[in-house]
Each structure stands twice: as C-alpha cells, then as structure tokens.
Amino acid sequence: xxxxxxxxxxxxxxxxxxxxxxxxxxxxxxxxxxxxxxxxxxxxxxxxxxxxxxxxxxxxxxxxxxxxxxxxxxxxxxxxxxxxxxxxxxxxxxxxxxxxxxxxxxxxxxxxxxxxxxxxxxxxxxxxxxxxxxxxxxxxxxxxxxxxxxxxxxxxxxxxxxxxxxxxxxxxxxxxxxxxxxxxxxxxxxxxxxxxxxxxxxxxxxxxxxxxxxxxxxxxxxxxxxxxxxxxxxxxxxxxxxxxxxxxxxxxxxxxxxxxxxxxxxxxxxxxxxxxxxxxxxxxxxxxxxxxxxxxxxxxxxxxxxxxxxxxxxxxxxxxxxxxxxx
Length: 327
What we know:
By secondary structure, this protein is α/β, with parallel strands linked by helices. 43% of the residues lie in helices and 18% in strands.
C-alpha cells in the first residue's frame, strides 16, 4: 500500500472509531443500570445512591436500580462490581472505607481498589458525630467528650461503643480517639451505620461515631452530640465542638460517598456518567436532598484517584498505630 493510501486508511479508521465512540455514548443506557450498595438500606451510602440514581434515571431515560448487598464492610458489593461485565450497566456506590481501608484490613479481599475500578466522582463528604443516648442511665450524665473519656478511664475495657462494621471509618475514628485519649472500650460492630444508630437508640451501646443521619435525632433530643470528627464544626450543629477543639488537636476524619465503574468500561460511558452525576449534585433541588448526608463535593476522576491514593496511605498508618484487625 502506498504511503498516501495508508494515510487515507488510517484517517478512515480514526473517523470510524470516533463515530462508533460517539454513538456508544449517545446510545447509553438502553436498559436499566444497577447500582450496587454494600451497606444496608437507610444508611448514608444507600440514601446517596438512591438520590443520585433517581436523577440519573430521569435524565438518561432508564431506571438506575439500587441493589443492597450488605456485609464485609462493603466488600461483597465491591467484589460484585469489580467482576461484573464492563458494559456500563453495573455501578458501585460506596463509602471511603470500602476503597481506602479494606485492602489494609483484610487478607481475603477479592478486588483491587485501584486496578479494578474506574473512579467517577465523590458526591458528598461528611464528618462523623460522636453521640450518646441521654435516656441511657449509663450516659445520662455524659454531656461532653471529656465526660466520656473520664467514664471510660474509670471503667477500662467495660464500656461498649458501636460502629457500622469492623474496620469502617466509624470504628477507626473511635479507635483513634481511644489511642489519643488513652482509653479502652469494647467495639460492637453492626451491619451498617443505620443499624449502629438503632443500637445506640436501643441502649445496646453507650456511644457511636454516627453519620449525619444523627443530626435530626440530636435536634429532637433523642441523641446527645459530644463532638464532630472533622477539622471544622458542622453548620447544622454549630454549638457542637470538634474533637480537636475538645482536646485532641489534629483529629480530622470524614467519610465520603462516591461512585465507581469496572475499570474496563468504555471511556464515553464513564464520561457520560461522570458528567451526569456532577450535574445532579450541582442541581439545587438534588443538592438540598444530599445535604442531609454531608457537604456536596464532586471531583474529576483524576482528582478522585489522587484523593484515594493519599487517604489510603494515611489511613494505613492509623490502622497500624491503632492495631486494628479485621474479624
């Protein structure tokens, strides 16, 4: 083939590729898309997935159906998505611990957070709220973080706290606090943040680092907030100090909820989903609903990947220092 003919053939091939790539993006989706959630219904990941899924379905013309596969700190759902067909019809909604902690905590993990997933964007970022139940006789007089620390020091290894699962961020936050404060408490893992919230309301545990679903309960007097885990106070609870303000400088842990697809999903589909999720998060009506779960926060896929890498390194150090072991 002559050079000119080869050049023309190459141009034709590139044009064909561009047309097929554009057509792929335009066609997607042509059937329902499954959003896998590794936590129980009613928890923050589930709520965010349903809010975003409703908007995506309305905008893209196909249902985005949430499927809850709770357990193993989100690993069951993550594994399902990692090994799903890379056609764009299986999406993962998860929190930060599923991506940044599990590989550090668990020996038996059948997905790789980096090589198996294409990050789309975060949607919300939220601190945890350290709460006690004012109706529980064991915590009726605990009104500050200092009170909780004093009670734990008076009964080392006797007071129980809950979390949404072994090794998740709520567990890590309490263990980090315990390390800083020099206390020891009993960890009671639940199947998700919503279940741990039920546990403290039922007086099964004395304290929980709760997600922001605790805010209405705090305002209603059902729970008492002692501190928030972020570096800054929570606008919805302006009178509640940060853990750092309460005596532990540098304490700053928040969790995010974000979306992923299998790594090999075609780029046009990834771009479509990223664009539409960001548009959903920036829509005032959707943002208002998302605000119950945290501060709306969206990232480019590249910035999201960088955030994951940074947090994975930092949290691995915390896990080692706190000697947290997966069950």
